[in-house]
Design goal:
38% of the residues lie in helices and 19% in strands. The protein is an alpha/beta fold and 342 residues long. The radius of gyration is 22 Å and the shape is elongated.
């Protein structure tokens, strides 16, 4: 597994080459020489580590990478469809299916950063699960539960939800209506990291907390499912119309720390994938090949997210360290990219 203990600043490959050593063979090693890539990354900082790894790999291929520019989902999918942005590696599908109509004619999903392991759902501190016998979101219609989770005294249980513009906001809003929770649950839509920090402080103070999260995410390192918190279920699977054909994927077996097995999380498991402008990919076969072959193990993303949450925000150094610790694997991806460019 990737270890952050050995993290070192990235060393540009160009610094290792003397000015007179660039023969034609070396030029083949950098098929992106002279090409500038406009890259984006998501607003959630748990996706910045994978983005930086892909950026540095493209730079090893000779590309000049502008950004990554931090964008919300709607402006990214609009920009990539128009060619103003070339790609990002922070697509979440099927969560982002609602944006397919925006980009499907001019951009595409290519490859996968991580397949199938990206979970979403609602969690409650374990002590409250046991004290109030909480199993599903329906339990938050009970007065005793609402009172315990009401931290702003508005008569509703507080839920750390998602900021406007995030794909998860759409699904949470759908759930609040589908399960008739509007009069019982208050969704907090402020900045996610700050809202979770407040919830964690409340938990450490012995208060009850309810929050949405996803994996990989630093929250499940800070509050470990099965130890500190528990995944709870939805009363029944009820997804937005564009996701209803994935209803079977919203109930999963073997979810660590769930109140039940199988666990009806209410969200289909997601793939984390690159989304790129198709014309850009056609002009840059090396980039397509890299995106098609590269991937990052979820435990490594978990480890970096936990370190970042502990104050280590040297994402460039962490990405460089990961690349060096996985040099044989990365070199194989880069060779496939170079071969595709010939």
């Amino acid at each position: 597994m990737f270890s952050l203990k050995n993290a070192v600043p990235a060393v540009a490959a160009a610094a290792l080459l003397s000015a007179g050593s660039l023969a034609p063979a070396a030029a083949q090693d950098t098929p992106g020489e002279g090409t500038t890539v406009q890259m984006a990354r998501a607003t959630w900082d748990t996706g910045w580590f994978p983005a930086e790894i892909y950026k540095q790999m493209l730079e090893e291929l000779g590309y000049t990478v502008e950004g990554p520019t931090t964008l919300d989902n709607p402006p990214f999918y609009q920009a990539v469809s128009q060619g103003d942005i070339d790609f990002w590696v922070n697509g979440w599908f099927p969560l982002h299916n609602t944006y397919r109509s925006t980009f499907e004619d001019t951009a595409e999903i290519v490859g996968a950063v991580a397949e199938g392991g990206a979970l979403e759902g609602y969690l409650v501190d374990k002590a409250s699960v046991e004290e109030f016998d909480i199993k599903t979101l329906d339990d938050f219609k009970r007065d005793d539960v609402k009172e315990a989770f009401d931290r702003n005294n508005d008569g509703k249980a507080d839920l750390v939800a998602c900021p406007p513009g995030w794909g998860c906001e759409v699904n949470i809003e759908h759930h609040l209506d589908a399960y008739e929770l509007r009069d019982h649950v208050n969704p907090i839509k402020a900045g996610y990291s700050a809202s979770m920090a407040d919830a964690i402080a409340a938990y450490e103070n012995g208060e009850s907390i309810l929050f949405y999260t996803w994996t990989p995410n630093w929250t499940v390192n800070e509050l470990v499912p099965g130890e500190d918190v528990m995944w709870i279920e939805v009363p029944e699977v009820n997804l937005p119309e564009d996701l209803m054909d994935l209803a079977d994927a919203a109930t999963l077996e073997g979810v660590e720390g769930c109140v039940n097995d199988p666990c009806t999380l209410g969200f289909p498991a997601n793939d984390i994938v690159p989304v790129a402008n198709t014309a850009f990919l056609e002009e840059n076969p090396a980039v397509r090949a890299l995106l098609e072959t590269a991937s990052i193990p979820l435990p490594d993303i978990f480890a970096q997210n936990a370190a970042m949450n502990d104050g280590d925000d040297d994402i460039e150094g962490q990405a460089a360290a990961w690349i060096e610790e996985n040099r044989d694997l990365v070199d194989g991806w880069l060779e496939e990219a170079r071969a595709a460019a010939q």
